[in-house]
Amino acid sequence: xxxxxxxxxxxxxxxxxxxxxxxxxxxxxxETEMLKRPAPKPFSVExxxxxxxxxxxxxxxxxxxxxxxxxxxxxxxxxxxAK
Length: 83
Fold this sequence. Notes:
Elements: H1 3-32, H2 45-60, H3 67-82
């Protein structure tokens, strides 16, 4: 095994260990903090319909952007920040 391969194996092993630690930490946090909170009240059918109506009004007024437009905007902002 050459030195580069050995380094890659160590890096991969370390990254895998770190990811396992992060997953354990997130699961523990979720169990201890989030599950203590009361469950949110579900939306009523009327509330859901009102949200759908509002969304349709926003779409008709052109107040939304699709995924590609949003990604283009993010790319532009990142390019401007990098300058």
